[in-house]
Design a protein that fits this description.
mainly alpha, Fumarase C, Chain B, domain 1, Fumarase C, Chain A, domain 2, Ribonucleotide Reductase Protein R1, domain 1, two-stranded antiparallel ribbon, about 60% helix, binds arginine
Length: about 475
């Protein structure tokens, strides 16, 4: 009688034991045990389908489901003993199932392979991680909207080249961040469509000779449909790459967001206060309050983009169908999901407590001649060519610089030296309030428009 040695996969074919180091080197259980609950969920659906198709008896199915349910609890309570000998999460669970229920445990793998099993687990895992990421992203979007609502008419300088360019409202700036995160949400939901396709039934690569019902398994697991090609199902990880790309864009946005918060909370800008709870002190300089959360988030954007690169390089050049290379997809994916959830959570917690130093923002816009374009536009409306107006405003700015005055503080006779077209109504345009109010069209910085953008955003949030 042949004895099956469960301590080594396919051991009957091997004359030699696996090299001790190779056993450790090739094992993935240390990290893929994170997908244990998804693995069990997939196995329960698979067994249910097998019984429905009379490939397993109802008794075998029930034994399998009971055993797997017990294993799920053992794992949840930290009682499950993971073993490198069993290589990965799939074999660890299967071997334990067989310990618990005997021969029926060995039948679970009928009509499937670890290749379609692992592809299913990753998809189920990503699906649930994306739910959490979406939740944190939504919290952050809401926090941004709430803050923007308080600052519809808070004036600050807008920058290009990090030089004061034109006055804007803080609410408008915040809504720019909201827009970026809105596209991030859409990308995540879009990549979910391609994640939510079921590989089970592809088996090792060619499908299975058992009369399985893939539509039933897909329905049991909440997938939108079974995959259309067995080779493709077990080999491609493009859905994971898409997730990492969407994640990299989120982190890139958070990194830019961070950069501005860091600059603005510096003594040099002094536009905002980040609450103490999100900062730390220096071990040597008692006066320091460092914006640790934004800095760390900015730093973490690097690792997520790194994971995207790893996954792309992992996939490139692999022949069809499954290759062991793919085992390397787990750690970058897990870390991408963890990093996204943590960074978004820290931001969603922090943003509601950011306070704006309105007077500093206002004065900074004033000092920077932010209404110079408004003066040029004023002259153009009075009939001057834009290039000439640009020249004249340059002269006025120089006078302001020399006498340390904003354009709105230069007297009418002085301004008229530069052009006879200038009359008393010019001051309506030289004030910061006049400047922002004038940009009164869809997408503009006028307080009325920012208010409308916030309302539209609220409706959008309520609808998704
Ligand atoms: N641990 C493996 C992985 O992560 C599971 C699939 C193994 N399949 C195989 N044919 N060796 O990809």
């Amino acid at each position: 009688m042949t004895t099956v040695n469960t301590a080594k996969l396919s051991s009957a074919r091997f004359a030699q034991a696996t090299d001790a180091f190779v056993e450790v080197f090739t094992a993935s259980v240390d990290f893929d045990q994170r997908m244990a609950q998804q693995d069990i969920q997939g196995s329960i659906a698979h067994a249910t389908m097998l019984a429905h198709c009379s490939i397993l008896t109802e008794k075998e199915r029930d034994d399998i489901i009971n055993g797997l349910t017990q294993i799920a609890e053992e794992i949840t309570h930290g009682e499950f003993v993971w073993s490198i000998k069993q290589e990965d999460v799939h074999m660890n669970i299967e071997v334990r199932l067989t310990d618990l229920i005997g021969i029926a445990g060995k039948k679970l793998h009928t009509g499937r392979s670890r290749n379609d099993q692992v592809a299913t687990d990753i998809r189920l895992y990503l699906r649930s991680e994306i739910k959490q990421i979406t939740h944190q992203l939504t919290r952050l979007q809401t926090a941004i909207l709430d803050l923007a609502e308080q600052h519809v008419d808070t004036i600050m300088p807008g920058f290009t080249h990090l030089q004061v360019a034109q006055p804007i409202t803080f609410g408008h700036h915040l809504m720019a961040w909201f827009e970026m995160l809105g596209r991030d949400q859409e990308r995540l939901q879009d990549c979910c469509k391609r994640i939510n396709i079921m590989p089970l039934g592809a088996a090792a690569l060619a499908g299975t000779s058992y009369p399985i019902d893939r539509i039933m398994t897909a329905e049991l697991l909440g997938f939108s449909k079974p995959s259309a090609n067995s080779l493709d199902s077990v080999s491609d990880r493009d859905f994971a790459i898409e997730f990492a790309a969407a994640g990299s864009l989120i982190m890139m946005h958070l990194s830019r967001f961070s950069e501005e918060l860091i600059l603005w909370s510096s003594a040099q800008f002094d536009f905002i206060e980040i609450p103490d709870a999100f900062c730390t002190g220096s071990s040597i300089m008692p006066q320091k309050k460092n914006p640790d959360v934004p800095e760390l988030v900015r730093g973490k954007s690097g690792r997520v983009t790194g994971h995207l690169m790893s996954l792309l390089m992992l996939m490139k050049s692999q022949p069809l169908a499954y290759n062991k290379d793919n085992q390397e997809d787990k750690e970058p994916l897990f870390d991408t999901a963890d990093t996204l959830i943590n960074c978004l959570r820290a931001y969603a917690d922090m943003v509601p407590h950011i306070s704006a130093k309105k007077a500093n923002m206002y004065n900074s816009a004033k000092r920077g001649f932010a209404t110079a374009t408004d003066l040029a536009d004023y002259l153009v409306r009075k009939g001057m060519a834009f290039r000439d107006a640009h020249e004249i405003v340059g002269l006025a700015v120089r006078l302001g610089l020399e006498s340390n005055r904003d354009l709105s503080e230069i007297s009418l006779p002085e301004l008229q030296q530069f052009s006879a077209l200038i009359t008393a109504d010019v001051y309506d345009f030289l004030t910061l309030e006049g400047s922002v109010a004038a940009r009164n069209h869809i997408g503009g910085t006028a307080p009325a428009m920012v208010g409308a953008a916030i309302q539209t955003a609220r409706q959008y949030m309520a609808a998704v």
